[in-house]
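Feature request, filed as a ticket because there's no other form

It would be nice if the structure record came with a short human-readable summary line next to the tokens. Right now we just get the raw output. Example of a typical job, pasted below so the devs can see what we mean:
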Amino acid sequence: MGKKYPKPSKQDRKGIADGIAAGTFDPDVFVVLMRLLREKLDQSIRRGSVTPLMHFIYEHFEKSASRLSNGKVACRNGCSHCCNIWTDAYAPEILFVTKQLPFSAEIQPASLIKATGEFSAKVSFEQRDKIPIPCPLLIEDSCSVYRFRPLNCRTAASMDADACQRAFIEGQDIEIPVPPGWSNLGQSYSMALKGAIFHAGLACEPYEWNSALKLASENSQLEQQWLSGKDVFSDPQIALPRPPFTHPFWRDLYGRAFSV
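Raw output as currently delivered:
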């Protein structure tokens, strides 16, 4: 976790202070973003809290998202079709949400998080795609942790809510029309976060959301343990269990970001 790496220059910081352009992928901008996230992760490690890292990445992401044209986005408050499908998140995202959970029985019963997590842990990825399971943090078709939701949820944008219902609720094999730029934006932040975590020597695989959320909600020590280098989510299913940055394109950008 004490690896050296090039720190972003003042010019680099200023260049992406208002977010990044999502219309096209800029390798130089991506490298700066990954370095900034690595720097914020160092702050989180020193403070023993994932909050500095997650506050920065989500605030920065929202700045970038605001630069996209949202005229064709069909997503609205109360539209929760995509909250019923399988998804995953990185460890700091899961731990950050857990810190915000309102465990009041009137707001969000911990028993629902437990039951959903246990069910999801027993279902294969193939089965999970065919069984709509509402996220346990969904209350009356609205996300109870919307401000703190993970990247996969932030980038689940659609131009057709009916198509989402047919695909996510009814199980039809149809393509969801995604507004231009959203896929690039999501991939940029996801890979930059993964690179920062990997370089710090921490567990960087994405974990099945429901089962990992259950574990985190039951053990307040997981945050400290993960920041100290322990793979605290080794039990939940991993989306793609393979070494990170094996693809030449991403491996090259990771090398550019952290070569000293």
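Something like this underneath would help us a lot:
Strands lie at 88-89, 138-139, 142-143, 207-208.
The chain is about 50% helix and 5% strand.
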